[in-house]
Please model this.
Amino acid sequence: MSGPGARGAAEAPASLREFYENPAVPVASGDARSRRQARMLADALGPFRTGEAPAVVVDVGCGDGSAAAVAAGVLDGRRPGGQRLVAVDWSHDALRRARARTRDAAPGTPVHVVRGGLPDGAAQPAGLPLAAGSADAVLFSEVVEHLVDPDAALDELRRVLRPGGHLLLSTPNLAAWYNRALLLAGVQPVFSEVSLRGIHGRPGNQVVGHLRLYTARALRGFLAASGFTVEKVAGAPYHDVPRPLRPFDRALCRAPSLASILLVHARRE
Model:
């Protein structure tokens, strides 16, 4: 995903910094959710009109650049010449991969890869290397669940967005259909983690550094309290659902509160 493993914590404790710099930590976003999010972004920006300045789209916590590359391709097809992408991450390894992945993603959409982090934890860094109000849209793909201080992170995203600018956020759904069943059976929910060293009490075998999880209702409330107006909540499938259950998982995307992944389009107030 652009998380798990997406990089938001510029000044996190040393153990977390080292964890997110580890090349073995997954950083790629699933293709299905990246495509759905990119289409939401294109719909939010609308058609590009002659004479307009290109929209500035910032992918914060870009990971290996897969979400930025997908977004560039979709935007290039829907709004040729109508945007510039800036991919930001704290991890040197992630930026190296993002630079290679986005280099030829969409010739009509320039992609700039820069290093930067979000305020997170007790020590507050300067924030993203962007001027206030400089972004027309921000992609925030599976990052928020990795943050010690998501409130400070949302404040920073609001700072760099222009008034009325678009936030496209995705995050795993704590109340996904299978998590409801697992909790009834006394099993730790998928996506949740109790340790950075191993998996305990839940399905799966990869530690990805999730610190916080959201339901659709909680995410709506959190964004509203952070100065955003939620325009749309949609669902996306999860690539690690067992193959026989994937059609069911895709079908439940029509009910975002049950979906594996939450996709949100919000606007800065």
Helices lie at 14-21, 31-45, 66-78, 92-102, 150-160, 177-184, 216-225, 246-251. The CA atoms of residues 12 and 122 lie 8 Å apart. The first helix runs from residue 14 to 21.
